[in-house]
Design a protein that fits this description.
11 helices, binds magnesium ion
């Protein structure tokens, strides 16, 4: 073998080794990412099981909408009613159940926002217990219904179809406000309150009620709930959602781009235990 042949052979061996190393690193890093996502998605298991199997979840929904009905009845029996009474409802985990999306995230080890668009486009979310009856009752009694959601505009048709199929009232373009570029629930509430009397706000997330909760720390959210406690069950009706929400964002200081490891550490750090002497 001459010098040139030896050099070519050596270069070939080195290239092959580098290529194998690159492929191995690439494979392991994507595998690591999948494993980390799998760990976090697995932590959803109990919350999703509760949403799909606990009678208590349904009971809490009925409790919320029974109370909402009572507040509507109180409003209707009031002598000094204002003009244009309305209720404003959020959609996800307030009147429809997206737990099949969360369940599939656990089963297939993916995390939001992966496959969210695909799920919403199926238009197959079921109504939460009591929601359809309550909103029809309000609507039949002259109370307007507005739907304000952080769903994307690109899901408008599927959302209208899903809500209509479930029998919700006043499912029309002009009654459905979806997120455009940024979430603007508070400005929409202000806009609607200019010409309407807001009888009730119904939601699963504190941001569905007031801007005072928006992007606040865990402690500030807890403090704000305490200071506004008289409004819950009165003007604000809360539906249960243990699967996701701003409560989780607050734990991460709303830095959703943190790595899976960081999020996992932060989750553990927020668990308040007790001293077992170890
Ligand atoms: Mg919601």
């Amino acid at each position: 073998m001459n010098l040139n042949s030896m050099r070519s052979m050596w270069l070939y061996v080195v290239s092959l080794a580098l290529l194998s190393f690159a492929l191995a690193s690439c494979g392991s890093s994507s595998l690591d990412k999948q494993q980390r996502e799998a760990q976090l998605s697995q932590q959803l298991t109990q919350a999703v099981l509760w949403h799909q199997n606990a009678g208590e979840r349904d009971a809490l929904c009925h409790q919320a909408f029974n109370l909402a009905t009572l507040r509507v009845d109180q409003y209707l029996s009031n002598d000094d009613k204002k003009e244009n009474p309305i209720v404003i409802v959020d959609i996800d985990e307030t009147i429809v159940d997206n737990s099949p999306f969360q369940a599939q995230a656990v089963k297939s080890d993916f995390m939001y926002p992966n496959y969210w668009h695909e799920w919403v486009e199926t238009a197959s979310a079921e109504a939460l217990p009591g929601a359809v009856d309550f909103l029809n009752y309000a609507s039949d009694n002259g109370i307007g219904v507005y739907y304000i959601s952080n769903r994307s505009e690109k899901n408008r048709e599927a959302t209208l179809k899903n809500l209509k199929n479930l029998g919700f009232p006043k499912v029309q373009d002009e009654k459905l406000f979806l997120k455009k570029k940024h979430a603007v629930k508070d400005s929409l509430r202000k806009e609607l309150s200019a010409n309407n009397e807001i009888v009730l706000l119904i939601g699963d997330n504190l941001d569905d009620f007031s801007n005072v909760f928006k992007h606040q720390s865990v402690d500030k959210r807890l403090g704000a709930v305490d200071s506004l406690k008289a409004l819950f069950g009165d003007k604000f009706i809360v539906t249960p959602n243990a699967m996701y929400g701003d409560w989780e964002g607050a734990i991460y200081s709303f830095e959703y781009a943190k790595s899976q490891e960081e999020k996992n550490k932060i989750r553990k750090a927020h668990l308040k235990g007790f001293d077992v002497g170890q």
